[in-house]
Design goal:
456 residues; Rossmann fold; Hypothetical protein af1432; 3 domains; five-stranded parallel sheet; 53% helix; binds fe (ii) ion
Length: 456
């Protein structure tokens, strides 16, 4: 589920509804293997009851079922405020246009045919869940002096999964904007106090609000005004009287275009990040090639750190950051002269100070790359100690970032169990004893405990 936005460490919950026990069980097995938590029922009535009592992120329902079919179940879920925001995916044995249209009319988010389910299931579910999560976080502000329009728009948009706020004229809308930032504004043209054209001008002239998409709601006779407003920055209009479906489609489309842009931007950043990591990894390899003793150290520290972080319940994204930070923790040694870094004997105070600069040098190398900002704390603070005697800042206890405390344990273990110019290699038992001994004063006790669970 790499493409799925993280819901903390919780697995997304899916309610499966199918009267065939064979399909129900096969689907459940498949979804559990994909990492979802699944509850299965064999009947629409039972599904409605479970869906109102428990939290679900998605419902997947068969269409042809006795007593209540999938269309009716979907319609009922969409009519209940407790369940209306849960996206519904319909699973059908045939994909006639009529069935698909009925499904979407009932409020389904996607349609999968049983023959394609195996290949399509994962991708479609990820898309639907990501979109639902995205929409659930979107706030639409509806501005209209008609209570009826406000009530219809509020109900329809909320049913589609949006958060909705309302204001009865432009002036109230401005008051609202000072406190919250909507993702979309739907605005009537004629209103007392401040009309739609005035509100649109105020928003476009403001550096803070000009990027919020603004959609005008107006009657057909006002084409001239609509054209002028589109020229002045409104991004669309919807003709009154409209039905709720048109409104929802318009809102989803505008926000989904925005969603696609965000996704593209994320992909671009991911690619940039991957390329960047590849170049920096080459740097680390070059660094380790200077010193036969530390060859492979970064990889070993990365493996140990990730094992500990997994033990401590990190999410997939946090684990990725952990691995990168651990691989690059000694990057700054690139800025330490050979005669100091590779000196076999005891270091003088001045030489030791030079070595002690490596966390700061590492953070300075990574600093200009925005996509690597999250790994800097692990690099910069991996030589801090719980009691405050570490460097570069002498941070104490919980003030040391967790990633740095984890790297410190892995780094200590790998350093003492490897052969170095200044020390002979220590055996595993002895090394574990040393780690226990310095737990609390030097190393984080929680991290040491996680380490012991991984290593023994
Ligand atoms: Fe280091």
């Amino acid at each position: 589920m790499n493409r799925l936005k993280q819901h903390g460490t919780q697995k997304p919950r899916i309610l499966v509804v199918d009267d065939s026990s064979m399909i129900r069980n096969a689907l459940k097995r498949e979804l559990v293997a994909l990492g979802f938590e699944v509850i299965a029922t064999d009947d629409g009535y039972q599904a409605l009851s479970v869906a109102t009592q428990q939290h679900f992120d998605l419902v997947i329902t068969d269409i042809e079922m006795p007593r209540m079919d999938g269309f009716e179940l979907c319609g009922q879920l969409k009519h209940n405020t407790a369940t209306q925001a849960i996206p519904v995916v319909m699973l059908s044995s045939h994909d006639s246009d009529e069935a698909i249209e009925r499904g979407f009319k009932a409020g389904a988010a996607a349609f999968i045919t049983k023959t394609n389910a195996r290949q399509e299931l994962r991708a479609r579910i990820e898309d639907v869940l990501n979109k639902a999560l995205f929409l659930r976080e979107r706030l639409v502000l509806v501005v209209d002096d008609s209570k009826l329009v406000l009530s219809i728009a509020r109900k329809g948009l909320a049913q589609a999964g949006f958060k909705v706020a309302t204001a009865e004229n432009g002036a109230r809308a401005i008051e609202f904007l000072k406190k919250s930032r909507p993702d979309l504004i739907l605005c009537d043209l004629h209103m007392p106090e401040m009309d739609g054209a005035q509100l649109c001008s105020v928003l476009r002239a403001s550096s803070e609000w000009s990027a919020i998409p603004f959609v005008l709601m107006s009657t057909a006779g006002e084409r001239g005004v609509i054209r002028r407003m589109l020229e002045r920055g409104a991004c669309g209009y919807i003709e009154k009287p409209f039905n709720v479906e048109q409104l929802v489609i318009m809102a989803e489309k505008l926000l989904s275009d925005h969603f696609q842009l965000l996704l593209k931007e994320k992909e671009r950043l991911d690619t940039e990040r991957t390329l960047m990591i590849a170049s920096i990894t080459s740097l680390v390899q070059a660094l380790e090639a200077r010193d036969v003793y530390t060859r492979g150290h970064s990889e070993m520290v990365a493996d140990l750190s990730v094992a500990m972080a997994t033990e401590m319940g990190f999410s997939d994204e946090e684990l990725q950051t952990m691995r990168m930070a651990a691989r690059l923790h000694d990057l700054g040694k690139i800025g330490v002269r050979d005669d100091v870094l590779l000196k076999p004997g005891r270091l003088t105070d001045a030489e030791f100070s030079l070595i002690q600069r490596h966390p700061v040098i590492g953070a300075e190398i990574l600093g200009p790359i925005p996509s690597l900002a999250s790994i800097i704390p692990g690099v910069l603070y991996h030589h801090e100690r719980m009691g405050g005697q570490g460097y570069p800042e002498g941070l104490k206890g919980g003030r040391i970032p967790l990633s740095a405390r984890i790297i410190a344990v892995a780094d200590t273990y790998d350093s003492i169990t490897s052969e170095r110019p200044y020390q002979a290699k220590t055996g595993k038992e002895k090394a574990l004893q040393i780690i226990e001994d310095v737990s609390g004063d030097q190393l984080c006790p929680d991290c040491v405990a996680a380490f012991m669970r991984c290593i023994t």
